[in-house]
Every structure is written in C-alpha cells, then in structure tokens.
Design brief:
By secondary structure, the chain is α+β, with helices and mostly antiparallel strands. 54% of the residues lie in helices and 9% in strands. It has 11 helices and 6 strands. The protein has a 6-stranded antiparallel beta sheet with strand order 1-4-6-5-2-3, sandwiched between helices. It is globular.
C-alpha cells in the first residue's frame, strides 16, 4: 500500500497535467515534497477528479464563434444576437437596453468611440464569444456567471452581452471590441479559452451550479464541434466543404495519449493507496476510461489491426497444412 505522501505527490504531479496544462514546464518535475500546500493541491485535484469521472458534472462551453472585420459585420452580429433589438443588450457598464433605436445608438458608439472602425476592413475589430451550459441550467445564473467572467477577463475592453434562454441550452452571446481603451489588442489563444472556461465554471459553482471545465483530451473526447457560422451556413444549405465529425491527426493523438498516461499514473497510485475512498475513486477512473470515446476507438483500432495480421497469416497456415501430408509420407 502507498502512503498519503506518495499518493498526494502523484496527484499533484499528474493532475496538473490533466486539469491545468498551462502550468506544465518543459522538463518533468520531481514528485513534490508533502507539505500543507501539496495537501491542499491534492485535495483540489481529488475534487476535480470526482466531479469529472464520478459525478460527471456538466461541462461548460466557451467558444470564440467569429468576429467582425468591419462595422458592417459587427452591426449584423449585434442585430442577430439581439433579434434586431427585441432582446435587451447589456453593455460593459451594466446598462441594459432594447429596441431598434438603442441598437442603432450602440452601433454608432462602437463605430466612433475610440479608434474609428471602418465599414469594411482587413483586421478583426471585434470577437464574438458564446458561453453555454447544458439544458436545465438556470438561465439567469448563467447570465450572472457570464457577467462576472466578462468583468474579470475583459476589463478595459468595450463589450455587450445578450442572453438566449429560448433554446434548449441557455447561452450568452458576448461581443467584445478587439482594441481596448488603452490601445491594447485582444488576441485570444487556446490557453485564454481554457482560462475563461475555468473562470466560468468557478463562477457557476459560486452560485451553487455544479460545473466543470475539463479539456476534451482529459475527457477522451474525439468529437469535432462546428463553429456557429458553420452551423448557420449548413442549415441554410450553403456549406461547400464540411469537416469530419471526429478529430484526427498527430496533435490529436498526442494530446489524448498524454492525458491517458496521466490518468494511468493517477489510477495506479489511487489503486495502491491505503485509503478506501482512493481505491473506490480508482475504480471510477477505470470505468471512466473504458467509456471514453478515445479509448473505445483505440480498442477498435487494435482489434482491426489484429484481424489484419491474422488474415495475413492465414495463407501461411494453409500452405503448411498442405505440405504436412507429403512430409508424413516421406517419413
């Protein structure tokens, strides 16, 4: 059996790779010494593992769905998310307004406020972001949590938000001006999106809503989700080139294999822990792994490769069987 020191060290070392990938360094770190900080980190990692593999907490979604390269595109998006002024638009000051007149005033403010945004342009002047939760989540809480995310992550930028609660899953559209008040440019990367998801999940949990922000690689997901513009164009029958519904490629397999390596180390440590609850958690991880799409696909690929090898061996076996009688006769 492993002691709490060893298990906590493994949880911190490999759990950070699963849930906090931006914390990784170029060289592998040694197992940390057990102290108060490590125990606290291990407790956080245990909680996230339980939420992900045992309780299967709902996963938040934060996507950049596009952005306008000129005021014409930005205005069109504002009309779309507000249903042409029928839904209230809330700005970064917390002021909500509706109606076509308010929508026109808002568009003029964005066009002339700060650096002038031309009607048509070559660089992105705004980013369209969508924050979403699964069906059944209180839409007003989604709005409150998204408001806190915007306040924390988009400070210094002008933005507006519109809640959509008339569809299956409550979601909030957020349009943020790329150039901040100090002239800095917003340029969200994958690490920023992951941080926004973490912040969104944290704010939701603060309102009593169970939410997680584990990466697709951590969950073993292989589905490819279309961006909003692709969904709209596809619904209108104007999509010329589609993308495969399942992800593939070297980067995809590298990230999934890395995640399952981390899961394996964690499961092994919990299996040999002297705590019964750790052993039960190891069983949950084992079950979670067997049910993950990536592992199921890997098992199917292995079975197909095995069948191909067996089929290739069949002619050799047939040849040996045909030659055996002759050998017996010579004897």
């Amino acid at each position: 059996m492993s002691t709490g020191q060893t298990v906590d060290g493994v949880l911190v070392q490999w759990g950070e790779r699963l849930f906090y990938p931006s914390n990784r360094t170029g060289k592998p770190q040694p197992t940390p010494r057990l102290d108060t900080m490590v125990r606290r980190k291990a407790a956080v990692i245990r909680g996230r593992i339980v939420a992900t593999v045992t309780r299967r907490a709902p996963q938040v979604m934060v996507n950049v769905t596009g952005g306008g390269r000129g005021m014409a595109a930005i205005a069109a998006h504002l009309r779309y998310i507000s249903k042409n002024g029928r839904l209230p638009i809330e700005d970064d000051r917390g002021v909500a307004r509706d109606g076509k007149g308010s929508l026109k005033d808002l568009t003029d403010q964005w066009r002339h406020g700060g650096a002038l945004i031309p009607e048509e342009g070559h660089r992105r002047e705004a980013f369209n972001i969508m924050l979403s939760m699964p069906r059944g989540t209180d839409a007003k809480i989604v709005q409150c949590a998204a408001r806190e995310v915007a306040t924390a992550e988009l400070a210094g930028h002008r933005y507006v938000m519109v809640l959509h609660d008339h569809q299956a899953n409550p979601h909030l559209h957020l349009s943020v001006r790329a150039t901040g008040r100090d002239g800095s440019r917003l340029n969200p990367r994958k690490a920023d999106l992951h941080r926004w998801r973490e912040t969104f999940a944290e704010k939701l949990r603060g309102y009593g809503i169970e939410a997680e922000a584990a990466r697709q690689a951590t969950r073993g997901e292989t589905r490819r989700f279309d961006t909003l513009w692709r969904v709209k164009v596809k619904d209108e029958g104007r999509l010329l080139v589609g993308k495969p519904p399942v992800k593939s490629g070297a980067a995809h397999f590298k990230s999934r294999n890395g995640a399952f390596e981390a899961w394996s180390h964690i499961m092994n440590a919990l299996t040999h822990s002297d705590r019964p609850d750790d052993q039960a958690l190891a069983d949950d991880i084992r079950r979670f792994g067997r049910e993950s799409p990536f592992l199921r696909d890997a098992i199917r690929r292995r079975e197909r490769e095995h069948q191909v090898r067996e089929t290739a061996r069949e002619p050799q076996r047939s040849t040996l069987q045909r030659t055996r009688p002759d050998i017996e006769m010579e004897r």
